[in-house]
Amino acid sequence: MKSILIIICLLLAHSMYAQITVNECIENGLKHRPSIKTAQADLAVAALKSLDAQSKFLPQIALAYEYRYNPIIATQVVPTGLFSGTPTTETQAIRFGSNWQQNAGVTVYQPLIDLSLKSKIKESKINEASANWDLKKAEEDFVFEIVKSYSQILLYQLQSQESASDSVRSYISMAMMEAKFKEGKILKTEWNTAKINHNNNLSAFQKAFSNLINEKIYLNYLTNISLEKLLADSYAPINDFLENTPNNSTFESSIDFQKFLTKEQLLNQQIQTEQNQYRPTLGVQGYIGANQYTQSINPFLANSWFGNSYVGLSVKLPIFAPDKSINLSKQLKKQLTVVENQKEEYKSQKNKDILQNSNTIERLQKEIAFAEKNIVLLKENLDIYQARLQTGQLEASELNTQESALQKALVQQLQLKEQLNKTFMDRLYISGNLLEKFKK
Questions:
Q1: Closest CA to 163 of 367, 369, 4, 18
Q2: Is the pTM of this model over 0.85?
Q3: Which residues pair with 383 in a beta bridge?
Q4: Cα distances (Å, whole numbers) of residue 308 to 65, 110, 297, 301, 314
Q5: Residue 217 near residue 147 (C-beta atoms within 8 A)
Q6: How far apart are CA 91 and CA 177, in angstroms?
Q7: CB contact at 8 A, 421 and 151
Q8: Can you tell me the distance from the alpha carbon of 73 to that of 85, in angstroms, rounded to the nearest whole number?
Q9: What does the pLDDT look like over 125-173, one tens digit per residue?
């Protein structure tokens, strides 16, 4: 019993400790969360792939060398009769080459016009943008989870304080009942009822306190802040921060919606790439090299090397390639239709969520307004009861009951504000403004 009362006193005096802020939790969480680091690595990979795609327009340089032995030298039939004074149909078989041969040279190709390659570069940039949205989505979901846990801790703290106050009051009442029972002024059943009420309050307190500890352990998992600090320090409120959220939030700026738009853009670009694969390409190609011919192994034989070079335009027009899909464009268009349908479903769902969220906010705001009015009335009643107590018209126990009702109403008002706070947070998440709001 004494240990529980000590915990209760610590909870009621919790505001004396240092405060933890939601921004501190977010900052620590983003630094240490492996999923965020993974998304950052994926973005870096996408950026490197984008640079790799752009490098395809750099000159293509190839160096080739071979030294080979020709056991059988190729023979060509030459129409020697055409070189005589009177042309005839005479031919002669002549072997061209030597037993040993060296070939060395450099080939350079500079692409000038390649629509398919340009389209793939655009694809890589879109993929990079998609990876960036994935990173933002991972950050947004993680920030939402931290803020949700932080807000839940604030709510559990209020519930723990309320149940702690109830336990203190029921303990005082139980002690008073015990004294009266020993004096013979009340029945044993009345004292038993007081003990039952106190035990129920202790059970409610232990449940609320256990929920609070579990949520702080979860926040430790999310943020990597030491559990000792999360258990000992108090938590700064965030309701004033979230209440500045505009009421006309829409989902068009949300990351999920932008991901749909990026996916559509990528599919359209892939369709364009597929169409450009059958467009002509233009480039400049050049070659410089030399060949050696010898009858025996002698790589350095003088006067046995013969130069060779050329430079000119290279034009290619693909006609048919069996290694390429014959209906890829149709597949991509079907995928585009699927994405468009998913986007429309997402829009309908978000419209529904925004309307429900606005309705919940309106309800909670009205409940808070009623709670504030009730608190004013309870305070008026308390002033009246205090005046009656001074004149001897009221017992102290009745005044305690009124003070208890006022304290409970104040805690319930704070709980309503925390619920409103969570609803504002949900609206930020639905509209896609949560990450931007907290990063600012």
A1: 4
A2: no
A3: none
A4: 14, 20, 22, 18, 18
A5: no
A6: 133
A7: yes
A8: 31
A9: 999 999 999 999 999 999 999 999 998 998 888 888 888 887 887 787 7
Residue by residue, DSSP assigns 344-361 as HHHHHHHHHHHHHHHHHH
What does the block give as tokens for 321?
A: 């390639």
β-pair type (100-113, 281-294): antiparallel
Percent composition of the chain: helix, strand, coil (DSSP 3-state, to 5): 65, 15, 20
Q: Which tokens is 125 given?
A: 């940039």
How far apart are alpha carbons 180 and 191 in whole angstroms?
Answer: 9
106 φ, ψ (degrees, to nearest 5): -125, 130
Write down how long the chain is: 440
Specify the residue for token string 């070939």.
103
Check residue 329 and give left, alpha or beta (phi > 0: left; psi -120 to 50: alpha): alpha
| Residue 414: strand, helix, or coil | helix
pLDDT digits (tens, 9 = 90+) for 353-399: 889 998 999 999 999 999 999 989 988 887 787 677 667 666 656 65
Instruction: Give the separation between CA 197 and CA 191, rounded to whole angstroms.
Output: 10
Task: List all residues 6 or more positions away from 268 whose beta carbon is below 8 Å from its beta carbon.
Answer: 336
> What crossing angle do the helices spanning 2-12 and 115-182 adopt, rounded to 10°?
130
Distance from C-alpha of 54 to C-alpha of 32, rounded to nearest angstrom: 33
**Residue located via tokens 């015990």:** 178
Give the chain's largest Cα–Cα span. 152
- Tokens representing 74? 């190729």
